[in-house]
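name: query_chain
kind: protein
chains: 1
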Amino acid sequence: MKLSWLPLLSLIAGCATQQHAPIPTVPQVDLPRFMGKWYVIAAIPTAIETESYNATETYVLEKDGSIATTFTFNKGSLDGKVKNYHPRGFVIENSGNALWGMQFIWPIKAEYRIAYLDQDYTQTIIARNARDYVWIMARSPKISDADYTRLTQLISDMGYDMSKLRKVPHSSNQ
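structure:
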């Protein structure tokens, strides 16, 4: 009789797991316009960036279509040790250039979804369907409170746990 409860408990546990629809990407990204320096305004960070300050991500479109990326930040404080990482982005075909595989370690490519991009290419949200990481980025190190509120609401609407979102401090001389 005890074994007959196992399928029922499995079913209940499966129903308790929240499933989300995929996060949509923007319809089209003009890659040359998207390239350049972006300041990380806030993030649900990966393990390497939990204590990041002055975080920026810079993209360069290579001749082969890949995207050379430089992720730079100060570790632990505004004047902490500078850390640099150099992942490579690969645009997924038929994605309107809005879905990339970001490769830190070969052959693994992490999902990189451009979920929001303003028409001026000055603010963006990079998301993942797993809803484990997200980044608000802008072309300047500071954005207005109204813009920040609007962008965080978009992230909340995507189903992220907002208690994990961390504002990334930037020094005034950036």
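note: The two ends are 67 Å apart (CA to CA).
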